[in-house]
Structure formats: structure tokens, C-alpha cells
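R.M. (postdoc): so does anyone remember the format we settled on? I'll just put the C-alpha cells first.
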């Protein structure tokens, strides 16, 4: 069905193309790949908003843009100016975080912002060999993916915006390298004059850039990150395929993220004990999900919880794939596919304190599905929260979450 509609769209485009391009497409489909034919073939794909991926399937980029908004890469024909002109022979690098994807994402975002702040060329770090098992390094290698941020983000889009080089590329001044002793959040790069600054793994610069007091005005840095970090087409397409597979229509379902596992063992017991109760969580979200289709993202399939979303809260239908065995691509990118599946939801309920939930909120803001000033919804009421420099910021342009100052006991806070 999906492939048939893509084929029909292609045929419609061919009918209005020049004869030369149509012939090139026919030749390519027959395996005749002359240089001229291949060039004309790819040119036709750009004009028709269709792409052909390594697996030979057609992708409609216009449909993905409709689903994911500004998370999508720039068009092949689009040129975007660089965000800044770097100082010659000055570079900046911070090692990738060793934990899961969203911790890595946060470190990358902070580092990119500090490279911009100091006008240094950003050196793109490799994924650490000792990364958390959730990163699936072995699978990424088997899939032939770059072992850096470009496993997840579009390389062309990033390099147009951020003056950058790979960590493995030769340094412009190789004998002038300095490794600060502390995180760049505590010991910022503007304090140093050396050509090449390298903040190693031990300094671990983990934070939320949109709440970093050094990165102001915040909206400038939000625009920077949203311009540079665009999700790869193949990840977007697989997420779209999954939504279609489960009958989840954009804007017509509610998404809940309920983090379990490590949070059950520590955070919920010490901070929000009620989060461990299926009944309390179900009753809390019930008003928002009655009569709705609900997507539950979780790391622990809990049939009692899922059943009660229907029998107690009145959800029309509940979707949860946490009990499905995944392999290959789906296993390697399981966290990102879950996050992307939450982006087109009409409403999203987050797990407090979870960087996974805050990553979803960031992507929803960037995609346009979370509007500025809209309430931030949580799966259970929380106790009053003390701010720690914007750690829980969703990164809305021009705004950041100061704190859960009016706790969920008093109502949902807003990103203000």
C-alpha cells in the first residue's frame, strides 16, 4: 500500500519530466547505469521530492516533512549559510558521553554551543568504545554506520551550519593541544588560548544548553542547535513506517513515556514513590486519554498497566511494542525510533527527571508539535522541584523551563 502510493507518485512525476530524464529512470531500473543516466536519475528524484535509499525503496520526503517538520534534513538543493566564521587554527572538542543516546545528545549540544561561543572549529567526537550497551556499537559497526553523531543526524545538514571536522582528521596545529582538568561548564573554553582544546571523557560536560547561563540569549543557541541537528532520512522513514504499521495517525493519538528499570530501582523510590503505582499513574492521566488512542513508550512491558489504561481510564486503544523482539536496524536505533514515534502525537506525557522524555520534548518543539507556552504534561504529579540551571529545559525558542515551581500537585507547569 505504502510502496504502491510511492510508485504512483513517481509515475505522476515522470509524466511531466523531460524525455531524457524518463529514459534515464527506465535505464536505471534495468540496471543500465551510464554516468549521464545516473546523474539525470538523481536529478529527477530531487525535483519530485522522492529519494531512493540503499535498500532500493522509495522515500517521499514531503510526507516526512509533514510528519517531522524541522527535524528533517535540508533538501538536496538547499544551501544553508554557516552559523559563524571560525578563528583560523582554533578547534574545540569534548568527548561523547559514555551513557545512553540522550546523554550523548546533551553533551553534543553543549559542545556545539561552546564551539560557536568561542568561534572555534568543532571537532566531531567518536562514540566511546566503552559506551553504554544501549548504544549498540557492535550493531552500528555491522550496519556500516559512522561511529559518531552521524549515525543519527544528517551529516550534510550539520556541516553546512557548523564549521567542523572529524576528531580523526589532522589538526591544523598538531603540537598545541590542551586538555582542561574540569568540564567546560565549570572551566569554559574562553579561558584558554591554546589552538586545540580537548575536554576528555573524565570531565563529562553533561547539561541542558538551553538553560546554560553562559549561553545567552538562549533563543540564539536554540536556533543554532535546531538548524544544525537534523535527523537522518532513514530513521525518519522507519519511524513513519512504524506509525503506519500500528495505525497511529499524526495528531490523533496521545503518547505516554513511562520509564521503568533503573528509575523503579532508585529515582521513583526516593523522589516520587507514587510513580511505582499503576493505579495512581492511570488515574492521573485518565482525563486526557479517555476515548483516545494511546501509545505507551516504556522499557518494561506491564500488561496490568496497559489493561487499566482501557478498563479504568477509558482509552479507546493502547499500543505498546515493548514486548516485541527487534533485530538489526530496529534494535540499533530503538531509542531514536521510540522518540520519533512520540513527535507527531497530539499530546505527550513525560517521565519526570528522564533525559529520554526531555529529548522527546526537544524534538517535539523542533518539529513544531509542541507549541510555545503549551503545558508540559507528566505521567504523575511531582513534588516541588528546585532548579539546577535549566537541566530539565525542553529548549523552546526564547524560553526554557526555569523549574517545576508550581508543582504538578498545583497544576501542570509551562515552559516559561
Amino acid at each position: 500500500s505504502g510502496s504502491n502510493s510511492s510508485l504512483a507518485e513517481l509515475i505522476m512525476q515522470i509524466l511531466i519530466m523531460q524525455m531524457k530524464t524518463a529514459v534515464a529512470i527506465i535505464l536505471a531500473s534495468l540496471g543500465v547505469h551510464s554516468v549521464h543516466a545516473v546523474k539525470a536519475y538523481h536529478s529527477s528524484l530531487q525535483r519530485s521530492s522522492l529519494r531512493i535509499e540503499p535498500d532500493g525503496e522509495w522515500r517521499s520526503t514531503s510526507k516526512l516533512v509533514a510528519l517531522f517538520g524541522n527535524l528533517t534534513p535540508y533538501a538536496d538543493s538547499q544551501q544553508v549559510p554557516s552559523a559563524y566564521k571560525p578563528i583560523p587554527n582554533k578547534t574545540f572538542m569534548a568527548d561523547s558521553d559514555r551513557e545512553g543516546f540522550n546523554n550523548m545528545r546533551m553533551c553534543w549540544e553543549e559542545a556545539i554551543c561552546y564551539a560557536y561561543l568561542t568561534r572555534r572549529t568543532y571537532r566531531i567526537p567518536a562514540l566511546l568504545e566503552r559506551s553504554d550497551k544501549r548504544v549498540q556499537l557492535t550493531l552500528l559497526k555491522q550496519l556500516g554506520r559512522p561511529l559518531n553523531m552521524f549515525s543519527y543526524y544528517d551529516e550534510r545538514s550539520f556541516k553546512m551550519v557548523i564549521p567542523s571536522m572529524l576528531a580523526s582528521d589532522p589538526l591544523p596545529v598538531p603540537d598545541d593541544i590542551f586538555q582542561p582538568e574540569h568540564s567546560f561548564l565549570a572551566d569554559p573554553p574562553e579561558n584558554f588560548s591554546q589552538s586545540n582544546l580537548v575536554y576528555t571523557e573524565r570531565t563529562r560536560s553533561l547539561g541542558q544548553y538551553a538553560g546554560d547561563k553562559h549561553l545567552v540569549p538562549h533563543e540564539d543557541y536554540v536556533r543554532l542547535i535546531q538548524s544544525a541537528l537534523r535527523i537522518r532520512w532513514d530513521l525518519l522513514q522507519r519511524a513513519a513506517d512504524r506509525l503506519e504499521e500500528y495505525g497511529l495517525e499524526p495528531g490523533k493519538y496521545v503518547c505516554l513515556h513511562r520509564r521503568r528499570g533503573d528509575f523503579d530501582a532508585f529515582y521513583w523510590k526516593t523522589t516520587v514513590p507514587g510513580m511505582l503505582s499503576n493505579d495512581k499513574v492511570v488515574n492521573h492521566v485518565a482525563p486526557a486519554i479517555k476515548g483516545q488512542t494511546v501509545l505507551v513508550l516504556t522499557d518494561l512491558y506491564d500488561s496490568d498497566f496497559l489493561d487499566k489504561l482501557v478498563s479504568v481510564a477509558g482509552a479507546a486503544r493502547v499500543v505498546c511494542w515493548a514486548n516485541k523482539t527487534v533485530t538489526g536496524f530496529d534494535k540499533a536505533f530503538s531509542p531514536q525510533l521510540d522518540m520519533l514515534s512520540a513527535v507527531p502525537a497530539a499530546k505527550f506525557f513525560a517521565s519526570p527527571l528522564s533525559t529520554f522524555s526531555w529529548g522527546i520534548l526537544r524534538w517535539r518543539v523542533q518539529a513544531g508539535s509542541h507549541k510555545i507556552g503549551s503545558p508540559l504534561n507528566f505521567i504523575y504529579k511531582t513534588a516541588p522541584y528546585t532548579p539546577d540551571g535549566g537541566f530539565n529545559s525542553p529548549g523552546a525558542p526564547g524560553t526554557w523551563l526555569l523549574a517545576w515551581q508550581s508543582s504538578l500537585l498545583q497544576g501542570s507547569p509551562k515552559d516559561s
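R.M.: ...and that's the designed sequence above, right after the C-alpha cells. Also worth knowing: Residues 101-118 form the longest helix (18 residues). The first strand starts at residue 50 and ends at 52.
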